[in-house]
Design a protein that fits this description.
Layout (H helix, E strand, L loop, with lengths): L1 H38 L6 H8 L3 H7 L3 H25 L7 H16 L2 H13 L3 H25 L8 H19 L6 H19 L7 H9 L1
Helix pairs in contact: 1-2, 1-4, 1-6, 4-5, 4-6, 4-7, 5-8, 5-9, 6-7, 8-9
Organism: Halioglobus japonicus
InterPro entries: Homeodomain-like_sf (IPR009057), HTH-type_TetR-like_transc_reg (IPR050109), HTH_TetR (IPR001647)
Protein name: TetR/AcrR family transcriptional regulator
């Protein structure tokens, strides 16, 4: 009986140590993302991340022996945070919102996601990846998975348009590239007013894409590339 109690206590100790280790790891990764935002990727070092996380150098090396391992884990962690952030915003769209109202709510949810701190960190990494081949490779795989998740969400949000082939793909890319460009271009006068105007225009233009005939711009483009 005493041995059984001892085994149980040992198991609890191991479980607590594993939980504590996971919490420390997440704290380091949170600190890494915050450092990307506040310092910029090129200025981030393992020592600065350890300081921001409030952990010792030894604890940092235990979890991430090299900067490469830290960056790879941070990108994966950021990817999961991005997915959760975007998914939670989409889930908040009221079930009573239908048709055009639901589609517009989807645009607003995507804009809120693009202007959050997590996307700011992701954009910082993408900029750094232009001249860092190792980082670029890490980001490419993460981006493919996230794009697939967004595509699945779009298929639900814009379900009435799923069977429109080329028109649907162009509409989704128009939304992605226009909105991401707007999010990156932070320094403009009257920003809120101009952003609302552009989002209103985008929402109306998306509706028009699926209403215009084959003689319209999208129809001509589809015929040209078919």
């Amino acid at each position: 009986m005493e041995k059984a109690k001892g085994d149980a206590a040992t198991g609890q100790d191991i479980s607590w140590q594993a939980q504590k280790s996971a919490m420390t790891r997440d704290r380091i990764l949170d600190a890494a993302i915050n450092c990307f935002i506040s310092l910029g990727y090129t200025n981030v070092t393992t020592a600065k991340v350890a300081s921001a996380a409030g952990v010792s150098r030894g604890a940092m090396l235990h979890h991430f022996p090299s900067k490469t391992e830290l960056i790879q884990a941070a990108v994966e962690y950021l990817h999961q945070q991005l997915l959760e952030d975007y998914s939670s915003r989409v889930r908040k769209i009221p079930a009573t919102a239908k048709g055009q109202k639901r589609r517009r709510a989807g645009i607003d949810a995507y804009w809120q996601y693009l202007t959050g701190d997590l996307f700011t960190a992701y954009h910082e990494l993408c900029v750094a990846g232009r001249t860092d081949a190792e980082l670029k490779e890490i980001l490419e795989e993460s981006t493919r998975r996230f794009d697939q998740h967004v595509a699945e969400s779009n298929s639900e949000l814009f379900s009435e348009w799923n069977d429109h082939g080329e028109r649907f793909l162009i509409a989704m890319d128009l939304t992605k590239f226009l909105m991401e460009g707007m999010a990156v271009g932070q320094i403009v006068s009257n920003r809120d007013k101009r952003v609302k105007r552009m989002l209103d225009y985008l929402a109306d233009r998306l509706e028009e894409i699926f209403q215009e005939g084959e003689s319209g711009a999208i129809g001509r483009h589809s015929a040209k590339n078919s």
